[in-house]
Amino acid sequence: MKILVTGGAGFIASHVVDAYINLGHEVVVVDNLSSGNKNNLNQKAKFIEADITDKEKIQEIIKAEKPEIINHHAAHIQVGYSVKNPQFDAENNIIGLLNIMEAAKEIPIKKVIMAATGGAMYGNKVTPFNEEMKAEPLSPYGISKRAGELYLNYYHELYKIPFISLRYSNVYGPRQNPHGESGVIAIFSEMMSEGKIPSINGDGTHTRDYVYVEDVAKANVLALESDFVGELNIGTTTEISTNEVFRKVAAEMEIEVEEKHIAERPGEQETSSLDYSKAKKILGWEPTINFDEGVRRVVTWYKNK
Ligand SMILES: NC(=O)c1ccc[n+]([C@@H]2O[C@H](COP(=O)([O-])OP(=O)(O)OC[C@H]3O[C@@H](n4cnc5c(N)ncnc54)[C@H](O)[C@@H]3O)[C@@H](O)[C@H]2O)c1
Fewer CB within 10 Å, N or C, the chain? Predict the structure, then answer.
């Protein structure tokens, strides 16, 4: 199939592109390289440098390429920055999606797959979060991702374009940007591999659900063939504290590092984990790479970089 992947020079979508190309699909990547990197691009994919907020350009690309599937990963992903500049977040995550969908409705598209958030979707509820829980995002980033899902539902109702929104927990793996505000495994791994001591926000007891990027890519593969329309959590249901992440990365690096704590970031959720039983039932998806193995692979990648 011909698949257009937005954000394919970034961390997660570059793994999705690799998985699609390994299966023999034809892939076109659209990315503005704002946080993505040309080194992440699969050589067998066609690359078009473009910004999804550029309405004319995006519509021109989609109408010319006529993909059967659009896999939409391009987004502004920093929750903290979305609080400082919600207009920028909405411009990329809402208007960018609308530019894509207004072009998609003019071509015979089979499906849209979108990367959404599970961690920032449900608000402060008892974990694990499931899809039946009310979406109550507490940040502009979470709100723009939920708005994206509602727009996809609108395009499905009105134009019969099927969609699957994959609500990821905290994704980690090789190629993750270690200089962002999230991605603690990448941040700790890069700093420790350079002999620096990372700081832990707060007392380090906050927990997150870490899902390995290859498992996430697999969900994007399974989503190609499914008739399901709607939202699916992609996570592990396992909660890992920041202290555990710190200790695991240090152990895999084979170094002894003293734990240094700094003030907690205001507004941080204490816990987060996703119930993935719906994705298991519908897609036959489940995580296969556990935390220990995943961190081992990330650390090996950093050591060989
Ligand atoms: N990393 C996670 O834990 C996580 C969790 C939930 C959801 N997601 C979602 O997954 C997707 C990919 O995230 P990631 O972690 O790989 O981040 P990333 O920053 O590595 O990837 C985003 C890609 O989109 C590109 N991009 C950004 N704005 C663009 C624009 N206006 N036009 C064209 N390209 C643009 C960037 O250059 C980059 O290559 C995002 O939609 C994100 O919201 C990520």
Answer: C
